[in-house]
Amino acid sequence: SLLLQVRGSGGARLSTKDPLPTIASREEVEATKNHVLETFYPISPIIDLHECNIYDVKNDTGFQEGYPYPYPHTLYLLDKANLRPHRLQPDQLRAKMILFAFGSALAQARLLYGNDAKVLEQPVVVQSVGTDGRVFHFLVFQLNTTDLDSNEGVKNLAWVDSDQLLYQHFWCLPVIKKRVVVTGPCFSKSQMSTSFVLTPSFNAGEEVMQRNLRASASLPPSTGSPASELVKEQEEHAAGRVLRRVMLDSETPREELPAADFWK
């Protein structure tokens, strides 16, 4: 038989004093004997694995004997790649979750029941959460047997809840400079477009500008004087009455996005 080793960074692990309760009952576990596993035949399921020499074969849970929280509870896997081409695809992340949950459960089972392949009296349950920061995947893995040489008999079980979005869209914070609010780039699944709206407080700002203009106009004009420079600057501000805003969804009618929502 082949020796397969699960190794690498399994993310963060939450451990507990007591094991997780089993999900499937004894009758449901026995019913897995009739389930036929899918096969890649004639392609080998280990076609993309690298063969190497292993001289020290051992099961390591990562914790020393006597650790007060010996039972695995939940594994947290975070895809930290900043660039999209380097990120794992959702199905790849779910496969990694299953792999490390299985490895953690198998190491715990052999620590408790020995290395002999057999159906476990008390199955080992491990949870896992995987995310890239926006899309979350949840897994519960129940190890029912350590007999991995045959496709017959009792099988192990996994429940997966995938592609759960933490949020739909990301809105950036506004940048306010010289009475003009300019939003930066925002991202969503929708096509991005640009449109223009008026700020709800622009009327009040315009009245202040006009009042300042009238007060400045009463001063004797002089080239290069502070009053004339103030008038020039305020005229420029009064001319720029349109607020540039980036809206995410080009299909959304403008009336569905009132300007007042921007200031909440």
Automatic annotation (TrEMBL):
<dbReference type="GO" id="GO:0005739">
    <property type="term" value="C:mitochondrion"/>
</dbReference>
<keyword id="KW-0689">Ribosomal protein</keyword>
<dbReference type="Pfam" id="PF07147">
    <property type="entry name" value="PDCD9"/>
</dbReference>
<dbReference type="InterPro" id="IPR010793">
    <property type="entry name" value="Ribosomal_mL37/mL65"/>
</dbReference>
<keyword id="KW-0496">Mitochondrion</keyword>
<comment type="similarity">
    <text>Belongs to the mitochondrion-specific ribosomal protein mL37 family.</text>
</comment>
<dbReference type="GO" id="GO:0005840">
    <property type="term" value="C:ribosome"/>
</dbReference>
<dbReference type="GO" id="GO:0003735">
    <property type="term" value="F:structural constituent of ribosome"/>
</dbReference>
<dbReference type="InterPro" id="IPR052482">
    <property type="entry name" value="mtLSU_mL37"/>
</dbReference>
<dbReference type="GO" id="GO:0006412">
    <property type="term" value="P:translation"/>
</dbReference>
<keyword id="KW-0687">Ribonucleoprotein</keyword>
<keyword id="KW-0809">Transit peptide</keyword>
<protein>
    <recommendedName>
        <fullName>Large ribosomal subunit protein mL37</fullName>
    </recommendedName>
</protein>
<dbReference type="GO" id="GO:1990904">
    <property type="term" value="C:ribonucleoprotein complex"/>
</dbReference>
